[in-house]
Amino acid sequence: MPDGFAAAPYETRIDPELARTVRLFRRVDHGDPHAVRKEAARRIRVARMAGLWVAEAEGVRVEDTVAPDGAGRTVPVRVYRPESGTAPHAAVLYLHGGAFISGDLDFEHPRCLEMCRETGAVVVAVDYRLAPEHPAPAGLDDCDLAYRWLLGAGARALSVDPERVAVAGTSAGGTLATGLCLRAREQGAPSPRLQMLLYPVLDDRLETPSALAFTDTPAWDSRNCAHMWEHYLGPGRRGEAPPYAVPARVGDLSGLPAAYVMTAEFDPLRDEGAAYARRLADAGVPTELHQFAGTFHGFDTLATATVSRRALAEQYAVLRGALR
Q1: What is the CATH number of domain 17-322?
Q2: pLDDT of residue 2
Q3: pLDDT tens per residue across span 114-139
Q4: Which ranges constitute the DSSP H helices of the chain?
Q5: Do 228 and 172 form a contact (C-beta atoms < 8 A)?
Q6: Long-range interactions of 204-210: CB distance < 8 A, separation 24+
Q7: Kind of pairing, strands 160-170 and 258-266?
Q8: For residues 148 and 205, what is the distance between their CA atoms, to the nearest angstrom?
Q9: Alpha carbon distance 322, 257 (integer Å)
Q10: 20: DSSP letter
Q11: How buried is residue 153: exposed, middle or buried, by Cβ count under 10 Å (0-12/13-18/19+)?
Q12: Residue 46, burial from CB neighbour count under 10 angstroms (0-12, 13-18, 19+)
């Protein structure tokens, strides 16, 4: 186990298969975005060399393209299209994680391949702009552009049914997914069928029990949360966020699309995800909340572990059900 983790009281409660992978997660100071990006690239290489998640491309056509807004601005996207099935297809707009400061179209390529193959839906991954070079709302603006394209010109080009679209996001991508749904509601735009929020980032106040307790958990700990929000919102802007940038601060959650929220037991983001799910349910939004025991942030990217396979199978089943 890495320094600082061995003495943690939850060490023996981490799922044994996941515990064997902890050494992959070097601690990196999220105050330095360049170091974070370098470490993210290293983790992808190591995980793939170790065979922890190597999804098969068979049955899926992959194309890098751009989503235009019709006014000269474009956002890079990667489109995953099933080679079988009947058109028009359902679709998932997928928003990667990375603490707002790292990630690209390769970041969760295996997940998108597998999601396309297992759900039969077209998956559109968005290469949104990153902080701190592009603080909020730049990333959300890019995701919103891609979403509107997918409902319009993209749907026609990809043989997608615009009435059967979901949005899914992991970690910081969960922030963007919730922000997209909130913005669509306020602007009267069509809502997705489902918002799938996987260990989402939602609250910049960092006051939940899990945020206060989990200072040295694998993959992600609360010490880096403050850096993450500072990069995303801009220096000194915590508590003064642009609209939809901090979903937990939004007062009215009524009228939002159905939600599936997944949290990990040993994740500083656990309690804010659960609290947001409860607020959605209280506002009348059909909501499922699933916490996976013995897991940490991003655990399902270690896809050979039994608990990860169970989580992924559940995600795909939920998407298939929502997009029928």
Answers
A1: 3.40.50.1820
A2: 39
A3: 999 999 999 999 999 999 999 999 99
A4: 16-19, 33-49, 109-119, 138-151, 153-158, 172-187, 209-213, 225-233, 270-282, 306-322
A5: yes
A6: 204/229, 204/233, 204/238, 204/239, 204/241, 204/246, 204/248, 204/249, 205/239, 205/248, 206/268, 208/268, 208/270, 208/271, 208/272, 208/275, 209/271, 210/267, 210/268, 210/269, 210/270, 210/271, 210/272
A7: unpaired
A8: 31
A9: 11
A10: T
A11: middle
A12: middle
For residue 77, the 8-state DSSP code is: E
Phi, psi of 293, deg, nearest 5: -70, 145
Catalytic residues: 171, 267, 297
**Six token digits for residue 56:** 């098969």
pLDDT tens for each residue of 219-254: 898 888 999 999 999 987 777 788 899 999 999 999
Residue pair 169/95 in contact by the 8 Å Cβ criterion: yes
Is 58 exposed, middle or buried (CB count within 10 Å of its CB: 0-12, 13-18, 19+)? exposed
pTM exceeds 0.85, yes or no: yes
CA–CA separation, 306 and 314 (whole Å): 12
Identity at 319, one-letter amino acid code: L
Query: Would you call 90 helix, strand, or coil by DSSP?
Result: strand
Residue 17 identity (one-letter amino acid): E
Cα–Cα dist 259/197, whole Å? 7
Distance CA 123, CA 115 (A): 7
Q: Where are the domains of the chain?
A: 17-322
